[in-house]
């Protein structure tokens, strides 16, 4: 369930991907004190734990013969391959010369209701795999710092405690701050028209805070482009 101060004029782009999606009536939304929000939506979906998903994806790639290499790439012209998929997140701003790339600062605290109020989202996400709960967050556009702010952490905990008073007595295990890679034009998934030496570059970045939500769809689009290129290689 998501509750908000303001109405949503249309269905979210992802509404068709979840089950039982519908908007709440004003009466239904107001039946959830202490939130006191007149608008909302409800749906059935899955919750992804990155700490579980990413190792699984890594293992799956290796089991299919894929390999991993860590090295510095100063420019896309340094790469030597038939096809390169550029999934460098915020690094795409410099690597692809894309001035529309910017960070969205988002700290979270290890501690599902999501409430939007005055442009700030408060969420409480249980992670059953390790018994922890994630509490967040903020959305500070253009903030490149990855340092935690005591003021942000205190504000997040205070907002979360309004939604779930038990938070006040919880032990903070640790706080994390991350940068979500966004662009002013939205997610970029496309073939770069400029071929570098003999290398085709497919861009796949700018997912913002929706990376785990849309990664399969973006990957499917990349596969379509790769197959079309392979037909001509």
From TrEMBL:
Family in the record: Belongs to the DAMOX/DASOX family.
Annotated source species: Aphanomyces astaci (Crayfish plague agent)
Protein name (record): FAD dependent oxidoreductase domain-containing protein
GO molecular function: D-amino-acid oxidase activity; FAD binding
Keyword terms, alphabetized: FAD, Flavoprotein, Oxidoreductase
Annotated Pfam families: DAO
InterPro entries: D-amino_acid_oxidase_CS (IPR006181), DAO (IPR023209), FAD-dep_OxRdtase (IPR006076)
A GO cellular component annotation in the UniProt record: cytoplasm
GO terms (BP aspect): D-amino acid catabolic process
Cofactor(s) listed: FAD
FAD dependent oxidoreductase domain segment(s): 16-223
């Amino acid at each position: 369930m998501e509750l908000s101060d303001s109405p949503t004029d249309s269905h979210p782009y992802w509404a068709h991907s979840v089950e039982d999606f519908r908007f709440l009536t004003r009466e239904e939304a107001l039946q959830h004190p202490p939130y006191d929000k007149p608008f909302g939506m409800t749906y059935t979906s899955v919750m992804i734990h990155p700490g579980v998903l990413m190792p699984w994806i890594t293992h799956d790639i290796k089991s299919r013969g894929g390999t991993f290499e860590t090295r510095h790439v100063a420019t896309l012209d340094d790469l030597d391959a038939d096809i390169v998929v550029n999934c460098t997140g915020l690094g795409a701003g410099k690597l692809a010369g894309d001035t529309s790339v910017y960070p969205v600062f988002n700290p979270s605290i290890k501690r599902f209701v999501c409430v939007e109020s005055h442009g700030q989202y408060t969420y409480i996400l249980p992670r059953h795999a390790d018994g922890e709960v994630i509490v967040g967050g903020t959305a500070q556009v253009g903030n490149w710092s990855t340092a935690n702010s005591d003021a942000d952490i205190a504000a997040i905990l205070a907002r979360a405690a309004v939604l779930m008073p038990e938070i006040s007595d919880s032990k903070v295990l640790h706080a994390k701050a991350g940068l979500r890679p966004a662009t002013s034009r939205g997610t970029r998934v496309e073939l770069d028209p400029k071929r570098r030496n003999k290398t085709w570059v497919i861009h796949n970045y700018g997912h913002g805070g929706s990376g785990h939500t849309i990664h399969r769809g973006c990957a499917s689009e990349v596969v379509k482009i790769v197959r079309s290129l392979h037909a001509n290689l």
